[in-house]
Amino acid sequence: MFGLVVRFTCKDEASAEAFDQLVAETIEKIRDREPGTLVYASHRVDGRPLLRIFYELYRDRAAFDAHEEQAHTKHFLSARGEFLSSTEVDWLQLQSGKGTGA
């Protein structure tokens, strides 16, 4: 499996609202069109209204690469910048877990 965690910090509350709408539209397409994307979850953080955390888990690197080539992903990647003040990515290496097949 192949995964990552991404922390997005929005510029302000209006940007956070617009970012959330972009995310909702994108996740709908990921759900419908990406069988290799096992988990793609967006989270709000208590007490930090401008922070969003994504957890992404893919069947393998090829599934991630396929995700990156989708038109909806390319649109998300190009549109998100106007709403964000920062982005941090952590690439994950699965050791073990429940429901992961590891």
Give structural notes.
The protein is an alpha+beta fold and 102 residues long. It has a single domain, classed as Alpha-Beta Plaits (2-Layer Sandwich). The protein is built from 3 helices and 4 strands, in the order βαββααβ. The chain has helices spanning 13-33, 61-69, 71-79; strands spanning 2-10, 37-45, 48-58, 84-92. A 4-stranded antiparallel sheet has the order 2-3-1-4. The N and C termini lie close together (9 Å). The model has no long low-confidence stretch (mean pLDDT 95).
CATH class: Alpha Beta
Number of domains: 1
- CATH topology title: Alpha-Beta Plaits
Shape: globular
Main pleated-sheet profile: 4 strands, antiparallel
Tally of helical runs: 3
**Low-pLDDT residue intervals, each spanning 5 or more residues:** none
Strand content: 35-45%
Secondary structure layout plus pairing:
Layout: E1 2-10, H1 13-33, E2 37-45, E3 48-58, H2 61-69, H3 71-79, E4 84-92
Antiparallel strand pairs: 1-3, 1-4, 2-3
Briefly say what this structure is.
This protein has 102 residues and is of the alpha+beta class. It has 3 helices and 4 strands, in the order E-H-E-E-H-H-E. It has a single domain (2-91), classed as Alpha-Beta Plaits.
Give keywords.
38% helix; alpha+beta; Alpha-Beta Plaits; 4-stranded antiparallel β-sheet; single chain; 102 residues
